[in-house]
Amino acid sequence: MVRQAHHERKFPRALWWASAFAWAWVAPVMGQIAPAWAVTARYAPATRSVEIESCARDAHASVTFALAGRSGSPGAAPRRNHDGFEPTRGGWRAGGWRAGECATFTVALPAAASGGLVRGSGMSGSVIVDPRQWLWLPVDALGRSSTIKFVLPEGYGVSVPWRRLDDTDGRPTYALDANPLDGPALTAFGAFEERVVRKPGGVLRVVVLAPRESALAQRLNAWIDGIATVALTASGRLPLRDAQVLVVPIAGSSEATPWGEVQRGGGSALHLYPGADASAAVLRADWTATHEIAHLFHPYLGTRGRWLSEGLASYYQNVLRARAGWLGVDDAVARLRAGFERGRREEATAGTTPPAASAQMHRQRAYMRVYWSGAAYWLTVDAHLRRTHATSLDAVLARYARCCLRGGDVASPEHFIAALDRLGGTREFSAEFARASRATVFPEARMLDALLDDPALRSAIFAPPS
Fold first, then answer.
1. How far is it, in rounded angstroms, from Cα 115 to Cα 135?
2. Which of 169, 192, 215 is the last residue of a domain?
3. How many domains does the chain have?
4. Cβ contacts of residue 426 below 8 Å, gap of 6+?
5. Domain that includes residue 128, residue range
6. Which among 3, 154, 339, 364 is least surrounded, fewest beta carbons within 10 Å?
7. In the chain, which residues have pLDDT < 50?
8. Is residue 46 located within the same domain as residue 181?
């Protein structure tokens, strides 16, 4: 597997460009009125099952419940306060729904949900599963003010991608801001405790699947703390107010992080799979975690936008680590040059534009052209902003985070670029996007080298934040 073949996954039903602005209105309302649906999930480790009780605030003429919004076997019939359900295509429907009425589902979690990753790590009792495999919810009536509360046995915890609220009756409670059935995500149940890492701008809700107080848990938690600090070198703040971080060590591996991904089903989540035997020095020297956390600085940009999203992460994986002192500046510049050269040499997508290469990236394993043409774009724009507009890529992305990022966000590449221009008060993003997105050859080495060799520009880009 090509190590740079990171997955930043989301399966959008629609582009929710306006949802980022709507959230600011919805958030205070949630604290003032009863949620549209109050969901309670009770986890039973002995049977590896979850009981889901969904109670409606309002009456409904008809309610249809679905699991992952997909057709297929609807499974066992749920229970309700009166009358019954009738099966539909992959779900259950009930008419005459009363205010305050509840539906109760019992779901056995897939035995293979955890795969081989948790086994051998000392956390074999944990379950990792996509919520679309267990979470039954009303399809059309959920609303943006619904909540989910977890009831867990003593000593057990849960990790989910949804925004955490104040606990209800001492139980961890989360907002279902976006439809949690819309796109891949991960939830984890097990004998662990979620640790909240608070930084300016937001929190990271960290779960490390390793025995509490073990050397492995301490090493991986310290590594995540360091990665959070590296992320702050962009603007001094985390881009999101809340994000899930799920760390699943791979037993028997001493490789730093052979796999990592960002998922956005119902929120934003960072999933990392480090080698359980990797030393602290090996973890710190690796770029993968910084690459992944950099994806939290932008919305999901779809298949055509992979060159922009992967390019930003590839640019920042070197720039941010150099600012934090995890990488020497000369080393960071050398790594950028090497990446650009790999992108230039790749033949699989020769003669195609970056959006076209993005669309066939996995099929043709054309990762280098996609990743590094995008990194060249962001370097070029960053240089223009610093030289002619007294601002920077960091500053504009920070404004975007404050106005528009809420977790699970989706935008087209064109909307994202236009928003950055508006926030930066320039046309640099759009002008370079128009040129780069139509280019069928990789940017010239001498042009990129001139930017990387400019002493003033290099000092500005790689300087630690003041």
1. 20
2. 192
3. 2
4. 385, 389, 391
5. 34-192
6. 154
7. 1-6, 9-32, 69, 71, 115-116, 118-120
8. yes
φ, ψ (nearest 5 deg) of residue 245: -125, 115
Reduce the secondary structure of the chain to three states and give it as a string.
Answer: CCCCCCEEECCCCCCCCCHHHHHHHHHHHHCCCCCCEEEEEEEECCCCEEEEEEEECCCEEEEEEEECCCCCCCCCCCEECCCCCEEECCEEEEEEECCCCEEEEEEECCCCCCCCCCCCCCCCCCEEECHHHCCEEECCCCCCCEEEEEECCCCCEEECCCEECCCECCECEEEECCCCCCCCCCEEEECCCCEEEEECCEEEEEEECCCCCCHHHHHHHHHHHHHHHHHCCCCCCCCCCEEEEEECCECCCCCCCCEEEEECCCCCEEEEECECCCCHHHHHHCCHHHHHHHHHHCCECCCCCHHHHHHHHHHHHHHHHHHCCCCCHHHHHHHHHHHHHHHHHCCCCCCCCHHHHHHCHHHHCCHHHHHHHHHHHHHHHHHHHHHHCCCCHHHHHHHHHHHHCCCCCECCHHHHHHHHHHHHCCCHHHHHHHHHCCCCCCCCHHHHHHHHHCHHHHHHHHCCCC
**CA distance linking residue 220 with residue 280, whole number of Å:** 8
Instruction: Answer yes or no: do 302 and 166 share one domain.
Output: no
- The whole-number pLDDT of residue 30 equals 41
CA distance 385 to 365: 33
Q: Are residues 39 and 184 in the same domain?
A: yes
Q: Is 158 within the bounds of a domain?
A: yes
Structure tokens at 119: 């086994």
Query: What pLDDT does residue 340 have?
Result: 97
pTM of the model: 0.89
User: Of 242, 246, 268, 241, nearest to 259 (Cα)?
Assistant: 246
Say which CATH number the domain at 440 has. Answer: 1.10.390
The answer to whether 105 touches 43, Cβ cutoff 8 Å, is no
Q: Could you report the per-residue pLDDT of 302-316, keeping only the tens digit for each?
A: 999 999 999 999 999
- Same domain, yes or no, for 173 and 302? no
Mark which of 140, 167, 192 sits at the end of a domain: 192
